Amino acid sequence: MEDLLQERIVVGDPHCPLDVLDVDRIRDDFPILHKRVHGNRLVYLDNAASSQKPASVIKGLSTYYEMQNANIHRGVHYLSGLATGLYEEARNKVRKFINARSEKEIIFTAGTTEAVNLVASTYGRKHVQEGDEIIVSAMEHHSNIVPWQLLCEQTGATLKVIPINERGELQLDEFEKMLSSRTKLVAIVHISNSLGTINPVEKIVEMAHAKDIPVLVDGAQSVVHGSIDVQALGCDFFAFSGHKMLGPTGIGVLYGRESLLDAMPPYQGGGDMIRYVSFDKTTYNDLPYKFEAGTPNIAGTIGLGYAIDYLESVGFAKIESHEMMLLNYAHEALTSIPQVRLIGTARQKASVVSFVIDEVHAHDVGTILDQNGIAIRTGHHCTQPVMDWFEVPATSRASFLFYNTKEEIDRLVEGIYGVINLFK
Amino acid sequence: MKPELRELYQQVILDHNKNPKNFKEIPEATHQSDGYNPLCGDKLHLALKVDDGVVTDVGFQGSGCAISKASASVMTTMIKGKTPAEVDELFKQFQSVITSSVKDAIDYDELGKLAVFAGVREFPARVKCAALAWHTVSAALHENSETTSTE
Questions:
Q1: Where are the domains of chain B?
Q2: What is the mean pLDDT of residues A132-160?
Q3: Would you say domain B3-142 falls under CATH 3.90.1010.10?
Q4: Do residues B32 and B129 make contact, with C-beta atoms less than 8 angstroms apart?
Q5: What ipTM was estimated for this complex?
Q6: Interface of B with A in 87-146 (CB under 8 A)
Q7: B65 three-state secondary structure
Q8: Which end of chain B is less enclosed by CB atoms within 10 A, N or C?
Q9: For an interface test with B, which of A36, A361, A387 has the most B Cβ atoms less than 10 Å from its Cβ?
């Protein structure tokens, strides 16, 4: 494997017989990876918070503003038509990317958070009543907890939580027991941002659907690590953000099953989401526009399309094998440090490594590593219930994408030894 | 190690982190408050005994980074025997240390123990860690019983 990695192989070359990524060449596509921070070459290991962007996405955004900018779905002029075409082309790219049946099922939002809130506000308010239950898991990001808590407060419904085990895996037997006629929705994270656990979404969907309960999947972490097929997953809603998958910030997607979206009331009112407005009665636009009120994030949407192009040109087979190599290498390196304890050791795991160092708080780790040019995330990662479960106030988290290297993990390990020595 | 880091993690701070002073409960506390830094999840419980308008005992508990723990520890060593007004004055001095410009000279004689936190000036992200204990003591003394947040 190591020998193979040394070879220079053309990225995305369909004739290339090996699932091996030419990481040097990939890194050249990301301008920021050549930056120096505090005098050191940047080692960017905070990808679970936000990924870096390839030049094609950055250039796509500037080209849009330089050559293509206008409002969409309105004007009869050339630029409006051009921008509308690009915007809808991006929707089509997203549809193919996650294998949705129709573009009507692709709603653009500001991000995963807004996508979850959209479902909680519209589907939730229509279908959830006092005495009903919503099921989430103990490893959810706050953005897949709080919208449901708000809904429960408004309706008198109850939030139920699937417990996890000491590895950071869901206890599906407990989940099975929780499903009942009172359950109105299951909202579950695909890959945990703080533990790296990959949840068995197909299985969860199967169990919920056996009782006719719809399932929302928070895909914020998963879309960049492997190819997503919403039809194969079987989920009813799938939410994700552009910025964690090489795209711009402020753009996200809600996939929803068409029949469910059709029956849901609109989310926000405004332009573009209407068919006809009068003071007596307003009729709403068709899907997906019913859920896209106001001028959307046009540039962000187009940029997301370019991010998808880039990911597809690299190919998820290569991405996955490179990231698994990094994960195994990092696990091995970190577990060899006696003072380090990993938090999250699920058998199915993405390239996210959370850890604590004996007697050293994560924020001190973060500050010291940063001085070495190493960017990691420290804190509770917006998953405070997970921290409480593992009885740690915070963790340090290194999260890898396919543009990271073993040498960067070596720098991380060297940095951790520096921290340990300082606090000795 | 970089000088900025050495300045931030001075031996005094590392020592206080390892062996914090007054890391204890105060059973007959007259004033207490909880400090919370939502950014990093640092939690600090601070309890004081005030007799005749003077702080006679103080203790803190909780979890936090080296900077917040050392700051709490140093703070507890400085406020015993002080009136609430004097504590406020120390808080002001402390704030001026951690938020002053890096170019400003530090008056070590005047600031005493507080001067060890001057290194925080180079690390704006850590100012809240250093200030948490002081915000919390201020809330406790001024009868603000709700959780103090750095946000």
A1: 3-142
A2: 97
A3: yes
A4: no
A5: 0.89
A6: 123, 125-126, 129
A7: coil
A8: C
A9: A361
